[in-house]
Write a structure and sequence with these properties.
The complex is a heterodimer of chains A (about 400) and B (about 80). With about 400 residues, chain A is an alpha/beta fold. Chain A contains 14 helices and 15 strands. Chain A has 2 domains: about 5-245, Thiolase/Chalcone synthase (Peroxisomal Thiolase, Chain A, domain 1, 3-Layer(aba) Sandwich), CATH 3.40.47; about 255-409, 3-Layer(aba) Sandwich (Peroxisomal Thiolase, Chain A, domain 1). In chain A, the strands form 3 sheets. In chain A, strands 1, 2, 5, 6, 7, 8, 9, 10, 11, 14 and 15 form an 11-stranded mixed β-sheet that branches. In chain A, helix 3 (about 70-85) packs across helix 6 and helix 10 (about 270-285) packs across helix 11. Chain B has helices spanning about 5-15, 30-35, 40-55, 60-65, 70-80. Chain B is mainly α and about 80 residues long. Classes of the chains: A alpha/beta (about 400), B mainly alpha (about 80). The interface of A and B includes residues 62, 125, 127 and 130 of A.
């Protein structure tokens, strides 16, 4: 059974809506700036990819805003855009429409602000728990649109969005749903969360005065990732049903692979990454030779980008050099559980438009990173297949494979 | 803050919790249930009021609140003499 992508919605530091996002991505625009949501002036890392012009009151009532965390609000906007793009799902019974959302931190914005109030002996909102819980985004998407089918949340750190999309593929194949609203959302540009990543030495701290140049996957001298936020949502339908309702089809979601390193809680592992990519390709009934593009996980950490490069070279052999690769995080930072959903939208747009967006800030590559990362300038290339990688804490590796209709044949 | 001001503020908080509510119909005897507030909305209303008026509701006593007047009266008798910072 084939699964089609029939709608997309994105809320990102470089644009809200696919048109704005993709136009900025192709131009290589950076969305990284100094943090505005709290005073970060005394932090080691003072920059982030924030969705600066996000105003929930433009599409949500006061009641919704009061009861939802920012990550849910980002997800609700991305879902609304995706549903509008898909042309509505009126053809389906509400019990056949599922929701599958990924988020690494869930409603941590609420958690942090409520904890602060508690420590100051101020009253704490009764919505502290319902706003914080990781499945609140999926739940509110269902409430807002009346989707009564399976409602799942994947919380697997940085690979959450990929697992949520993969789980949606599984639901459709198993016949548990006819449509799934799938993707990821994250809003963790927050004092405590950033502090937590800082003390792991995961964030870059050397580019506070040059935010646009801070996220530099595969570049020589990179020293950590930049925190980001956002949401990406796909509408996934059984292709046959999508065609019969006359939906436009952007791409096919052809395969999903997932593997756990089972070695270390935060260190990346090449074997696990290879296993996830190999499984996604096998799951699609394809061979590694047919992969033409990779939207890399590539967060801009010294170790992570080198390990991913080695994994790609190991799996694809001599052909690795012919595969176009790009790192969306070079422009938007690392939006944790949303990142693979946004990366998936970039992958689908590459398939759909024949343009590969660049990896920016790549003037001199790390000698250990010697593949074709589409440095600094977008490129025209008609591709038929693209992998989107997502590797998370917990040794959680996921890879999803999108194809054009022709790419599958 | 005098009674009218407290009442106006409480009504303003209620209005954020119920969509398309005609606030001109709300008075001290309006019941939460009739206004369309569910139990979570009511707890959130108490939270808003605690924050705005610098008071702490006694949770046992607050459980018995059912009208706008119940909240307004409690705030009247418990508000600190100086405005909270």
């Amino acid at each position: 059974m084939r699964v089609a992508v029939t709608g997309m919605g994105v809320v990102s530091p470089i644009g809200i809506g696919v048109d704005q996002f993709w136009s900025a991505a192709v131009k290589g625009v950076s969305g990284i700036k100094r943090i505005t949501s709290f005073d970060a002036s005394s932090r080691r890392s003072q920059i982030a990819g924030e969705v600066a012009d996000f105003d929930p009151s433009t599409f949500l009532s006061q009641k919704y805003i009061e009861q939802t965390d920012r990550f849910t609000q980002l997800a609700l906007l991305a879902a609304r855009l995706a549903l509008e793009d898909a042309g509505g799902l009126d053809a389906y019974g509400s019990h056949r429409i599922g929701v599958s959302i990924g988020s690494g931190m869930g409603g941590f914005s609420t958690f942090e602000s409520s904890a602060l109030r508690k420590f100051r002996n101020q009253p704490v909102s009764p919505f502290t728990v319902p706003r914080t819980m990781a499945n609140s985004a999926a739940a509110w998407i269902a409430i807002k649109h009346g989707f009564k089918g399976m409602n799942l949340t994947s919380s697997t750190a940085c690979s959450s969005g990929a697992n949520a999309i993969g789980a949606a593929l599984d639901l459709l194949r198993a016949g548990r749903a006819d449509v799934v609203v799938a993707g990821g959302a994250e809003a963790c540009v927050l004092p405590l969360t950033i502090n937590g990543f800082e003390i792991l030495y995961a964030l870059t701290t050397t580019s506070n005065d040059n935010p646009a140049g801070a996220s530099r996957p595969f570049a020589k001298g990179r020293d950590g990732f930049v925190m980001g936020e956002g949401a990406g949502i796909l509408i996934l339908e059984k292709e046959e049903q999508a065609r019969s309702r006359g939906a436009k089809i952007y791409a096919e979601l052809a395969g999903y692979g997932q593997a756990c390193d089972a070695t270390h809680i935060v260190m990346p592992n090449m074997e696990g990454q290879i296993a996830a990519m190999r499984e996604a390709i096998r799951d699609a009934g394809m061979k590694p030779d047919s992969i033409e593009y990779i939207n890399a996980h590539a967060t801009s950490t010294p170790l992570g980008d080198a390990v991913e490069t080695r994994a790609i070279k190991n799996l694809f052999g001599a052909r690795a050099a012919d595969i176009a690769i790009s790192a969306t995080k070079s422009m938007i930072g690392h939006s944790i559980g949303a990142s693979a959903a946004i990366g998936s939208i970039a992958t689908i747009m590459s398939l759909h438009t024949g343009t590969i967006h660049p990896t920016i800030n790549l003037d001199e590559a790390d000698p250990e990173c010697d593949l074709d990362y589409t440095p600094n300038v977008a490129r025209k290339k008609n591709i038929r297949t693209g992998l989107c990688n997502a590797f998370g804490f917990g040794g959680n590796n996921a890879s999803i494979l999108f194809t054009t209709h022709e790419g599958r044949d | 803050m005098d009674t009218a001001e407290i009442e106006a503020k409480v009504i303003q908080f209620i209005a954020t919790k119920v969509e398309n509510l005609d606030t001109s119909t709300i008075n001290r005897s309006s019941k939460f249930e009739e206004l369309g507030l569910d139990s979570m909305d009511t707890i959130q209303l108490l939270f808003d009021a605690e924050d705005a008026f610098g008071i702490n509701f006694d949770s046992e006593e607050a459980k018995g609140f059912s009208t706008v007047g119940d909240i307004v009266s409690y705030i009247e008798t418990h508000q600190p003499s100086a405005a909270p910072q």
